[in-house]
């Protein structure tokens, strides 16, 4: 399995993102992500089909822009890591659950997997967990 990989820190509206690009298909990356989450002993709480929703509502909101070919966000939590970061500061509850997205865009080749970056300090435990999961999903660990 070939994993063309590039780590990009892309600015987002209110926060930074950690992203990885791969030449793997969307379905292969999603399968890898689901497997990596389960292999870590975690449970996917929710999958948001963001790409489908945006495409379904595109005309309703008066747009002709196709943002994604496919785009899903996977939400999950870790009892161990969540307890660790919330014992350090109970207000870290604001970051839970944790999300990893997978997307393909009509104007690019390959698939992007990523997650938001977290503040310095205790939340770096979450960032390290998500980075390991994302890298494992595309075979870059």
UniProtKB/TrEMBL annotation:
<protein>
    <submittedName>
        <fullName>DUF302 domain-containing protein</fullName>
    </submittedName>
</protein>
<dbReference type="InterPro" id="IPR035923">
    <property type="entry name" value="TT1751-like_sf"/>
</dbReference>
């Amino acid at each position: 399995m070939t994993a063309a990989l590039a780590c990009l820190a892309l600015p987002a509206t209110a926060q930074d993102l950690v992203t990885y690009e791969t030449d793997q298909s969307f379905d292969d990356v999603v399968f890898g992500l689901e497997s990596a989450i389960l292999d870590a002993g975690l449970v996917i709480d929710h999958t948001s089909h963001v790409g489908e929703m945006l495409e379904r509502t595109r005309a309703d909101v008066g747009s002709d822009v196709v943002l994604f070919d496919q785009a899903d966000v996977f939400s999950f939590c870790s009892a161990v890591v969540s307890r660790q970061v919330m014992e350090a500061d109970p207000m870290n509850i604001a970051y839970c659950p944790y999300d990893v997205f997978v997307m393909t865009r009509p104007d690019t080749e390959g698939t992007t997997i990523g997650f938001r970056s977290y503040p310095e300090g205790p939340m770096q435990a979450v960032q390290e967990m998500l980075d390991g999961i994302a890298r494992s999903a595309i075979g870059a660990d």
